[in-house]
Amino acid sequence: MAMKLGFIGLGIMGRPMALNLRRAGHPLWVHGRRAVTMEPLAAAGALACGSIGAVATHAEVIFVMVSDTPDVERVIAGENGLLSHLRPEQVVVDMSTISPAVTRRLAQELQTCGVEMLDAPVSGGEVGAIDGTLSIMVGGQKATFQRIKPLLEIMGRNIVHVGDHGAGQVAKACNQIVVAVTIQAVSEALTFARGNGVDAAKVRAALLGGFAASQVLKVHGKRMLDEDFTPGFKVQLHQKDLHIVMEDAHKLGIALPGAALVAQHLNALMGSGDGELDSAAIVKIMERMAGRKT
Amino acid sequence: MAMKLGFIGLGIMGRPMALNLRRAGHPLWVHGRRAVTMEPLAAAGALACGSIGAVATHAEVIFVMVSDTPDVERVIAGENGLLSHLRPEQVVVDMSTISPAVTRRLAQELQTCGVEMLDAPVSGGEVGAIDGTLSIMVGGQKATFQRIKPLLEIMGRNIVHVGDHGAGQVAKACNQIVVAVTIQAVSEALTFARGNGVDAAKVRAALLGGFAASQVLKVHGKRMLDEDFTPGFKVQLHQKDLHIVMEDAHKLGIALPGAALVAQHLNALMGSGDGELDSAAIVKIMERMAGRKT
Questions:
Q1: Interface residue of A188, A215, A245, A288 to substitute, partner B, most B CBs within 10 Å
Q2: Is-catalytic flag, A284?
Q3: Residue A252's CATH number
Q4: Chain A interface mutation, best of B165, B203, B262, highest count of A Cβ atoms under 10 Å
Q5: Interior CA angle at A53 toward A49 and A54, to 5°?
Q6: Which of residues A141, A164, A187 is at a domain's end?
């Protein structure tokens, strides 16, 4: 059954995700800060809106896909944001990767107006967004999740309801912790091999068959060996995500010594102007420590 | 073609490995420090020897599978060790996990007597040893490797010649770095989930489909959730292996900040009497930091 949908945020991820919703036959109202981002959507039959309010007026379910916590706060609770336009029974689905704590607060503010919110951050990158094969980690009320799930299935494949409001963001944060610290693990192993004068490519091959095997050893390990840091997932986004993790850990009093270490390495990469590289570039920090120019 | 083989060290790993060689039809001379360990081998037709010298006298190729660096030094270079008995053309294959630097030195000492050495540490544990499905990482001369490979294929499946003397030990060290730091990564993610009041089992499930996926998330992550730390691979062995790594890193001047952190967590587990647990118990350190009694 066709539903009136809204989509706010038409960047590298949001644009293809919105296009998939439109192509599935749903009437779609879209808003992007830069008008040019709305053009491919309008060409596909979506209605380009000059304001968030216009989207809120027409759509029953409104997806948000913006960069960072303050952006979501602005879209939902800012001046002329969703909160000043929404009516009861509407649903907001925030697919951005942001703070779990802020997510819980925004969900509560929306609930006061009778509006349900889901946090539904994704992993799988631009390719997953285009192909509709994203992993989607969802927090919020189970009944709302069930209602929205058919729409999420247009954009993704591995869709898990993790728990209450914020639980999707927590799962995404866990994902970013594991990926970052595993990149560090692989970086150190390759550095140890090279420091011993041993062919790091052969070591990676020997390790792929056993308990050291991981997606990171396979994909990021290959990038490190090829010294090809074309993203993939950029240092600046991984740094942002680990900043969310460490802020939450600070507030809740959770010790994460490994993640803290890697967050510093991402900071160093930002400082050396490497924010646009894939976060496999963490290996560069190991190489710089060893005195190699990278 | 049947070859006269020797096997020194008949512990949990060595015994089934030696049995597989014997069952493949090779005449086999064995020596274990405790006479009782030789009984199942003798029952299978191997010749139990009271000394290392007796093995050295009869066998063309001598396998060594003992616990730690000093044990291998004793077997090869100690009083009445292999060096005082071997003749040119014999081959020593050390399958223990020990120091790459000591391996290089022992290989050189053996070469002086015309004896070739391979370092061929394994991963895959007791199950792999019994089933003959070990991963074997080999260092040493390529020609020697080619000659010995059919014998290694009796004990293992994924057999990689990594490079010159010591390269097998370096690859094994890299394996232990990656596994240890990835266990830390998964421990922190599950701790972050719990600290946020989110179901850690659902988070693991959500993460298994994407870039966070690894053997460690699958196997060790499950152990953490079940709080079942039956080994698997024991804390005391992982601690020993990371000690080898950190000693080598110290000597060669290689910075491994992540591995150093996890080495400390393994030290803490040894101090609390948890050396017999699986090294997935690293998660306990995160839980203790959070004030939970474990």
A1: A188
A2: no
A3: 1.10.1040.10
A4: B203
A5: 35
A6: A164
Q: Is the pLDDT of residue B153 over 90?
A: yes
- Per the structure, the count of domains in chain A is 2
Q: Which two tokens stand for residue B120?
A: 């061929």
Helix (H) or strand (E) holding B7: strand B5-8
- Note which residues in 25-54 of chain B have CB less than 8 A from chain A: none
* Separation CA B53–CA A263 (nearest Å): 55
Same domain? A86 vs A185: no
d(CA A213, CA B180): 12
- pLDDT tens figures, A6-44: 999 999 999 999 999 999 999 999 999 999 999 999 999
The torsion region of residue B132 among left (phi > 0), alpha (psi -120 to 50) and beta comes to left
Element at B136 (helix H, strand E): strand B134-139
Q: What's the ipTM?
A: 0.94
**B219 Cβ under 8 Å from any chain A Cβ:** yes
Domain boundary pick from A105, A130, A164 = A164
Q: For residue A92, what is the domain's CATH number?
A: 3.40.50.720
Please give the single-letter amino acid code of residue A266. Answer: L
Please give the model's pTM, rounded to 2 decimal places: 0.94
Strands (E) located in chain A? 5-8, 28-31, 47-48, 61-64, 91-94, 116-119, 122-123, 134-139, 156-163
Cα(B259)–Cα(B266) distance, integer angstroms? 10
Nearest to A177 among B100, B124, B192 (CB): B192
Percent of chain B with pLDDT over 70: 100
Kindly compute the dihedral angle of the four CA atoms of residues A272, A278, A279, A282, in this order, to the nearest 10 degrees: -60
Same-domain status, A152 and A254? no
**Which tokens go with A129?**
């967004």
Q: How far apart are CA A275 and CA A258, in angstroms?
A: 21
Catalytic residues of B: 172
Q: Which tens digit of pLDDT belongs to each residue from B235-253?
A: 999 999 999 999 999 999 9
Q: Is residue A294 in a domain?
A: no
Residue A292 is predicted with a pLDDT of: 84
Backbone region of residue B204 per phi and psi (left: phi > 0; alpha: psi in -120 to 50; beta: other values): alpha
Residue closest to A182 by CA, chosen among B256, B239, B214, B244: B214
Q: Would you list the DSSP string of A104-154? A: HHHHHHHHHTT-EEEE--EESHHHHHHHT-EEEEEES-HHHHHHHHHHHHH
